[in-house]
């Protein structure tokens, strides 16, 4: 880490730094640095590699990295630091992939654009987490809130008594994060069992202590006690935002099997996650002694291994912002390729792999689950909502008799398919002082939201906030939003959803259970080591996360660099 910081300090200003700025997205932005000077301690340590570049004229780079998300940039950084020439090919006109920091609302003269992270925003775990370390080094604040008052559960008109709300809040996080994990470990559930089968079982800790509570509270409020169990269930369902899938679809057997980071989860200051990827991009492209390029707007269509030449050809379509100019295609050639295409892209719109991927890779692509987390961010000129200084997350619970009110604005047929669930809303005034609320919608709710008209979705969210988060202020006093964004991860052709999960249902073709080995399968290179894979979906311990994606990139960058070194030394 210290070394990478030293390198940053020495690097010049990269044009890619502007890519993350609002309105400045580059088009086919080519950044290249020469590798003609050696002299720093770091470059010297790898100078033998630079002096032995493959000089065949048809070669464009030692390694082509496909995708400029965090895994691709981590791989490229690792490779250039080890003296290799690297080209990163990225289809979008920005770097970062599922790290997507955006401007929201009008520009503030003093502070510039207000920002929000529409992709990753959490740093999961403080210890043994390279992203936390990077954030520290880059002075990006990670916010930790006190556990008290962190979560506030609101049912119809916010009337749930505090005792019951606290009990529900404790039950749901305990059941989801602790009890279900230890149940899976101690009871060895069968492959077909789902997380829902434990979380929603009649004797689940989700319902613990609700009986006495529920009766007292229900009598007081003239309600049926069973109503509280229903509320606990709807609250449990809101955790589909965490898994990206309905809890019915997630395998219980593998829930919590992984060795993950330690310590609390924190949140990066709104809209600053991109600084981590910008930093990596800078290391790749702007260091005088490194030889890295990031090419934006280049969509990979074909990856062809020529075993005779021991080279890989990667054909791209150059995407143009201007629809009237025709797309052109070109081919790059390298000794090795690292593919960081998201699992959703591999499943739904993969490039042509020639020769085709081996059966085990094809099975992993087919069988693994790839879920959806969607967000609606709404910005206001002031924080008008209740307990804004005390609450990090609100959970809005549906009303049994008005369940469609808390469902995204979609067709009645689609609404009939949605199961009632709570909605998580993050209050950024209590996180980093920004007057914005961000609603998280997992799985089917996210799908429904992203299919609807974006303005309608924003209006729906604003109406719900007014109704549930401010029962004491008359709605005429509540300001209108000054900015809003609704995500579209499910339809984005360069992600097609959000992140990986291990499904409870078996593979559709061979009928066998899906396991973490399917994720591990991606970490195995093919084509005699010429094609490797990185990305969150390739890290069995840390899939679905930024830190997992980053570590997978380092893993693959290192592997390719070692293989190239061995080749240069004739050690194969
Ligand atoms: C809404 C949301 C919230 C999240 N929240 C968190 C969180 O709080 N904390 C956390 O740790 N993780 C979170 N995640 C997960 C995390 O963002 C991802 O795991 C991680 O960023 C994935 O990085 P990656 O490099 O594997 O993939 P990506 O970032 O998706 O990078 C792959 C790149 O490949 C490019 N690409 C796609 N197709 C082509 C093509 N044909 N040719 C060339 N390039 C192509 C894409 O444009 C992209 O830039 C969240 C994800 C989402 C969507």
From TrEMBL:
**Source species, domain of life:** Eukaryota
Name recorded for this polypeptide? Uncharacterized protein
Which source organism does the UniProt entry give? Naganishia onofrii
């Amino acid at each position: 880490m210290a070394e990478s910081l030293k390198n940053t300090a020495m690097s010049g200003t990269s044009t890619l730094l502007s890519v993350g700025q609002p309105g400045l997205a580059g088009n086919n932005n080519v950044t290249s640095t020469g590798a003609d000077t050696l002299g720093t301690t770091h470059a010297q340590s790898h100078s033998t590699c630079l002096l032995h570049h493959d000089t065949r004229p048809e070669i464009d780079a030692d390694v082509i990295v496909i995708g400029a998300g965090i895994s691709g940039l981590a791989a490229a950084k690792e490779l250039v630091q080890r003296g290799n020439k690297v080209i990163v090919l990225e289809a979008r006109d920005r770097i970062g992939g599922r790290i997507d920091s955006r401007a929201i609302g009008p520009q503030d003269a003093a502070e510039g654009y207000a920002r929000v992270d529409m992709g990753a925003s959490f740093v999961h775990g403080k210890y043994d987490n390279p992203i936390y370390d990077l954030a520290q080094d880059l002075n990006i604040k990670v916010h930790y809130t006190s556990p008290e008052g962190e979560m506030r559960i609101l049912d119809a008109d916010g009337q749930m008594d505090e005792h019951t709300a606290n009990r529900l809040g404790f039950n749901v996080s305990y059941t989801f994060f602790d009890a279900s994990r230890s149940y899976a470990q101690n009871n060895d559930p069968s492959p077909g069992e789902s997380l829902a089968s434990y979380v929603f079982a009649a004797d689940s800790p989700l319902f613990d202590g609700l009986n006495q509570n529920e009766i007292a509270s229900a009598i007081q409020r003239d309600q049926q006690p069973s109503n509280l169990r229903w509320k606990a269930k709807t609250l449990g369902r809101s955790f589909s935002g965490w898994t990206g899938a309905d809890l019915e679809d997630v395998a219980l057997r593998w829930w919590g099997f992984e060795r993950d980071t330690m310590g609390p989860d924190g949140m990066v200051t709104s809209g600053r996650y991109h600084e981590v990827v910008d930093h990596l991009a800078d290391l790749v492209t702007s260091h005088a002694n490194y030889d890295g390029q990031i090419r934006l707007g280049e969509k990979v269509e074909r990856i062809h291994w020529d075993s005779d030449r021991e080279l890989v050809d990667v054909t791209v379509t150059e995407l143009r912002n201007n629809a009237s100019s025709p797309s052109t295609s070109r081919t790059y050639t390298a000794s090795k390729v690292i593919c960081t295409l998201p699992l959703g892209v591999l499943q739904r719109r993969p490039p042509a792999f020639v020769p085709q991927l081996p059966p085990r890779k094809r099975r992993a692509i087919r069988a693994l689950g790839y879920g959806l987390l969607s967000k609606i961010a709404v910005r206001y000129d002031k924080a008008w909502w209740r307990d804004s200084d005390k609450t990090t997350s609100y959970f809005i619970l549906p009303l049994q008799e008005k369940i469609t009110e808390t469902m995204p604005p979609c067709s009645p047929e689609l609404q009939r398919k949605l199961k009632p669930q709570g909605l998580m809303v993050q209050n950024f005034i209590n996180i980093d002082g920004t007057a914005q609320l961000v609603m998280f919608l997992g799985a089917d709710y996210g799908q429904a939201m992203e299919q609807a008209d974006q303005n309608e979705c924003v209006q729906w969210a604003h109406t719900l906030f007014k109704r549930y988060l401010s029962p004491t202020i008359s709605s005429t006093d509540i300001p209108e939003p000054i900015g809003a964004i609704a995500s579209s991860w499910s339809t984005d052709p360069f992600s097609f959803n959000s992140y990986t999960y291990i499904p409870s249902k078996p593979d559709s073709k061979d009928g066998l259970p899906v396991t973490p080995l399917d994720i591990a399968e991606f970490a195995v290179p093919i084509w005699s080591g010429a094609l490797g894979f990185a990305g969150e979906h390739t890290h069995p311990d840390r899939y679905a996360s930024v830190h997992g994606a980053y570590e997978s990139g380092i893993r693959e960058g290192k592997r390719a660099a070692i293989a190239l070194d061995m080749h240069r030394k004739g050690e194969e």
